[in-house]
Amino acid sequence: MSGEAGIVIVGAGECGARAAVTLRESGYAGPVTLIGDEIHLPYERPPLSKQVLLAETTEAPPAVLSEAGLRERAIQHLAGVPVTAADSASKQVVLADGRALPYDKLLLATGAMPRRLPNVPASPRILYLRTIGDALALRPWIAAGMHVAVLGGGFIGLEVAASARSRGARVTVIEAQERILKRGVPDAVAETVLSVHQGNGVLVACGVSVSGIDADEHGVGIRLGDGTQVTADILVVGIGAQPCIDLAEQAGLALDNGIAVNERLETSVKDIYAAGDCCSFPHPLYGGRRLRLEAWRNAQDQAIIAAANMMGATRGYESVPYFWSDQFDHTLQIVGLVDEGRSVVRRELGDGAFILFHLDDGGRLVAASGIGVGNRIARDMKLSEMLIAKRVAPSCEALAADANLKTLLPRAA
Ligand SMILES: Cc1cc2nc3c(=O)[nH]c(=O)nc-3n(C[C@H](O)[C@H](O)[C@H](O)COP(=O)(O)OP(=O)(O)OC[C@H]3O[C@@H](n4cnc5c(N)ncnc54)[C@H](O)[C@@H]3O)c2cc1C
């Protein structure tokens, strides 16, 4: 089924690498070229704000695919070279070094990048976190005796705060909204996260605006809207991410909060697909609502669907959204879309762990969010995901009670 040119994948992150592997595992025999602008082998990002920051020594980035893995699968990996243009008429991509590569099918898996603070001059003391380079630049600063200010009480900011505090740094989190984790996390879960941080000595200031930021060789000054100033050794900025769409824009693809794809992950231009953090797609579980997810498992699952479809399948993407975050000894998980839920049922799991079930107006389970120490919530969250996928409308009593969630799953015909 392949022509001479084969499949070109732009972006050698979680999604791009997984797509390349899936092509081979599915028997695709044509050329597979994986092009990444980072110099590394494809690596995992979730450890960057957790294990990599907590580690004592510099380690190789946690790889998704090793040199041997690439070789065994005959995947050509071009590293450290951005793709600057894609021409759908001649079906080729152009690299920053001038090379042009033809494709039969093209997958854009370009990911996302941190949203930058406007009007703040670059400084080695103002840091962002997306790449292994970012994590290694940050790590020496997070030690006892340092004061780490974190702008943004979202997942990245809070994970950095937890890692920094665990390594003995003094940590202040500054959040503009009235509470942390405002996007997609219910109040009760956010409150638990807050108390875990406060219990570990992190100072969290919510509802606080920033009127200016200065940095010099001695530190960073963050002027707050109330006239006070936070002085810290470094400022870590975690104010969200934006999809990498430059190439898609240049290629004339339709955009809509990222690269717009249909349920089969096809872009508006024939033979070009997009997947992972860079794309928005309609989700059948939520009435076709267009979503863009920044989540590890979504990147993997979409890679698998995109690979299958580039080989001729017509599979729709319908996985239940899933996200986890580790902060101190707690793990938080979200399955489904919390903001789709109207009513909430709480299930206690002991030792402070709990799950909230979010039901729509018809009583269908649309999301579950939970938090607990270690893997306390893991099993019930997995079952919740299955209930959401099966569009089950369980009784509130059954959800709240101690009953095994498995019994709520529809029986196989
Ligand atoms: C610090 C951190 C912690 C995280 N923790 C969690 C977690 O706990 N749980 C969770 O579910 N998710 C987590 N995530 C999110 C998860 O890592 C991402 O959803 C996932 O990496 C997305 O994969 P991707 O392949 O779409 O994008 P990426 O992994 O970003 O890969 C895209 C790659 O494409 C490259 N690229 C972009 N444009 C071009 C171009 N023109 N030419 C060549 N290459 C290009 C980029 O440089 C990048 O290497 C975390 C993310 C970060 C940054």
Topology record:
Layout: E1 7-10, H1 14-25, E2 32-36, H2 51-54, H3 67-72, E3 75-79, E4 83-87, E5 92-95, E6 100-102, E7 105-108, E8 112-114, E9 126-127, H4 132-138, E10 147-151, H5 155-166, E11 170-174, H6 187-199, E12 203-205, E13 210-216, E14 219-224, E15 229-232, E16 234-237, E17 241-243, H7 246-250, E18 259-260, E19 272-274, E20 279-283, E21 289-291, H8 296-310, E22 322-327, E23 330-336, E24 343-350, E25 353-359, E26 365-373, H9 378-389, H10 396-400
Residues 10-16, 35-38, 45-46, 48-49, 82-83, 109-112, 129-130, 156, 244, 247, 276-278, 294-297, 299, 323-325 line the site of flavin-adenine dinucleotide (FAD).
Structure, explained:
- The chain has 413 residues and is α/β, with parallel strands linked by helices.
- The protein folds into three domains: 7-113 and 242-310, FAD/NAD(P)-binding domain, CATH 3.50.50.60; 116-239, FAD/NAD(P)-binding domain (3-Layer(bba) Sandwich), CATH 3.50.50.60; 329-408, Enolase-like, domain 1.
- 22% of the residues lie in helices and 30% in strands.
- The strands form seven sheets. The protein has a five-stranded parallel β-sheet with strand order 3-2-1-7-19. A five-stranded parallel β-sheet has the order 9-16-10-11-12.
- Strand 4 (83-87) and strand 5 form a beta hairpin.
- It is globular and about 60 Å long.
- The chain starts with 6 loop residues before the first strand and ends in a 13-residue tail after the last helix.
- The model has no long low-confidence stretch (mean pLDDT 95).
- The structure holds flavin-adenine dinucleotide.
- Flavin-adenine dinucleotide is lined by residues 10-16, 35-38, 45-46, 48-49, 82-83, 109-112, 129-130, 156, 244, 247, 276-278, 294-297, 299, 323-325.
- Flavin-adenine dinucleotide binds at residues 10-16, 35-38, 45-46, 48-49, 82-83, 109-112, 129-130, 156, 244, 247, 276-278, 294-297, 299, 323-325.
